[in-house]
Amino acid sequence: MKTIVMTLALLFITNTILAQNKNVKDETKTTVTTVKTSDGEKKFVKKENTREVQNIELKDQEVKNINMDVKPSEVMVQKTTTITNPDGSTRTVDLDRSSYYMLDGKKYQVSLDNKGYRILSEDKKNEAFLRKTTTNSFIYRSKQKTAIGYFDTEGNLILETYDPKSDTITYEKYTVSQ
Question: From CA 59, how far away is CA 67, in angstroms rounded?
């Protein structure tokens, strides 16, 4: 009997110590895109998960207070995007860079595809593709050139192209449009 009481007391104390001290909010947005091709319909499933975590902190912690106010604290937001291709393969993108960008007065749309990103011109024609490398950069491929691309701290797309004739590197900056 004594061991049962001690076990219950230990479980109660452990449960009190491990009580939740965080507010967690998970939100998932699912987008299904159906593309009709000559091979039939293909479905792409994009799931965007946003997780907000906030530590719970109390203002005035005194023993005599029963109800205590919560002190405002920082909310940490983590976003991940999971894409499922028609063949069943799945990939996870930590930060979705899909947006509209400007270069030389022309507007381009960068959007996720099944292997990376695709860049479309204003008239929705495929201009180029971006494929992720292991060094947190992208290979940019269009009909005219191949380059290395990356996103700077402001979210702009920077392309670095090597010119073998002049032995120089040229830079192009696609600025993100708001």
Answer: 11
pLDDT at 17: 53
For the stretch 115-119, contacts whose Cβ atoms lie closer than 8 Å and that sit 24 or more positions apart, written own/partner, are none
For CA atoms 49, 107, 143, 136, the dihedral sign is negative
d(CA 48, CA 96): 9
Radius of gyration of the chain measured on its C-alpha atoms: 25
Contact 30, 46 (CB under 8 A): yes
- The alpha carbon of 41 is separated from its chain's Cα centroid by a whole number of angstroms, namely 27
- Give the model's pLDDT for residue 5: 64
pLDDT below 50 — which residues of the chain? none
Antiparallel, parallel or unpaired: β 99-103 and 90-93: unpaired
Amino acid residing at 109:
Q
